[in-house]
Amino acid sequence: MLKLPSLQPQTLPLAKPHQTLNPIKPTNLPLKSNPLNQFPTLRRLRIRATDDAAYPLDHDEAAAAMKTTFVPPHTPSTTKLKIAVVGFGNFGQFLTRTLVRQGHTVLVQSRSDHSASAAALGAAAFYADPGDLCDSRPDVVLLSTSILSTESVLRSLPLHRLRRDTLFVDVLSVKESPKNLFLEALPPEFDILCTHPMFGPESGKDGWADLPFVYEKVRIARGETCEGFLEIFRSEGCQMVEMSCAEHDRQAAETQFLTHTVGRVLGMLGLRSTPIDTKGYKSLLELVENTAGDSFDLYYGLYMHNDNATLQFERLDAAFGVLRRELELHGKYRKQVLENASGEEGELFR
């Protein structure tokens, strides 16, 4: 009777350090003539450096730094980030609420004492000193400052105390200005992502679905952190628009700046709701409401840090002039018509 080999799984002996486990026995087949095949060697891989500059990695961090995860295209990222929100005004608090809800660790830094608000929103820590914030070694530094104070805030950060793989992100309403500032002030080891959520606490109060989020990957060497940050907005249903900073400023001057300008002009008129409001008038009141909460510093920043906005303001001023002249000419023409008609009627009854 033929005996079948045992089907029980065989346990291979554990390999000793620096040994290769190879249960396959060499055969007597002749090797190729290449003399290197007679003395096969193993190449050893050595880790020459890590992406941490200021501090040595501990054992757990070193193990995590060596792991890589393949994320297929269009697959939601599960990366949880440690995000430092620098500047904790209305917009910083507005973003923090969603960041915390998504499970990210949020650290807050501000010159004003917003520790109570930060704790109420679920932030992990509040820092008054920017150095203490940098010592916390965030994955992302998110600048949520005013346009006018961005440069002074950025230069106040002790960058040498941050990790070398830190991602810097801004959410300003102008883009060329912060892009140039980042490239000039940040060491080349830091990644740069310029973004503009085209919504705010008022327009985004009911959710971010279908609201545009504009971004440019200015300098990205490590894609996982960048994609993890973009996923924050992608998962909320934002309309993701990848666009150069220069093109953003050109288009934003024709949309955002004009919107703020008209909203401020209407707000100065003191418009109020009436019992006979038309749909168009209600839209104007809504425009005033959406822009009234923004500071004049924001509006001034839109004007001063976007050359295209200056051009749009001049065009708007010229358009008012043309409209005024058309009304005046129409009035003179109407007066002449009425006077001529009145004279002709007098001739008929003489």
UniProtKB/TrEMBL annotation:
PROSITE patterns from the UniProt entry: PDH_ADH (PS51176)
Signal peptide range in chain numbering: none
Domain of life, source organism: Eukaryota
UniProt keyword annotations, A-Z: Oxidoreductase
GO biological process: tyrosine biosynthetic process
Pfam families: PDH_N, TYRAAT1_C
Gene3D superfamilies listed in its UniProt record: NAD(P)-binding Rossmann-like Domain
InterPro entries membership: 6-PGluconate_DH-like_C_sf, NAD(P)-bd_dom_sf, PDH_N, Prephen_DH, TYRAAT1/2, TYRAAT2_C
Entry GO MF terms: arogenate dehydrogenase (NADP+) activity; NAD+ binding; prephenate dehydrogenase (NAD+) activity; prephenate dehydrogenase (NADP+) activity
PANTHER family for this protein: AROGENATE DEHYDROGENASE 2, CHLOROPLASTIC, AROGENATE DEHYDROGENASE-RELATED
Full protein name: Prephenate/arogenate dehydrogenase domain-containing protein
